[in-house]
Amino acid sequence: MKSLILSTFAVATSSRTKEALDAKRKLGIIGGRPKGPAKNLKLDKQKYKIVEYLRMGLS
Questions:
Q1: What is the pTM of this model?
Q2: Residues of the chain with pLDDT under 70
Q3: How many domains is the chain partitioned into structurally?
Q4: Residue 41 host element (H or E)
Q5: Which of 7, 10, 19, 31 sits at a 20 to 30 Å CA gap from 1?
Q6: Is the dihedral of CA 26, 28, 32, 36 positive or negative?
Q7: Is 41 within a domain?
Q8: How many angstroms separate the CA atoms of 25 and 17, rounded?
Q9: DSSP states of 1-46 as a string?
Q10: Helix, strand, coil share (%) of the chain residues, nearest 5
C-alpha cells in the first residue's frame, strides 16, 4: 500500500514539474546549466595548492 501511495506521489510530482517547465519554455525562459565549459570552477581559487599537492604525490 505504501509503495502505491509513493508511486502515485512521484507521478504527480513529475507531472507538475513537466507542466511548469513547459509553461516556462512557452514564456521563452530556458532552464538548466548553460552550454559549454564553466567559466569559473569552485576549485579555481585553490589551483596552486592542488598543483603543489599533486607534485608531492598527494591525491
A1: 0.51
A2: none
A3: 1
A4: none
A5: 19
A6: positive
A7: no
A8: 12
A9: -HHHHHHHHHHHHHHHHHHHHHHHHHTTPPPSPPSS--SS-GGGGG
A10: 65, 0, 35
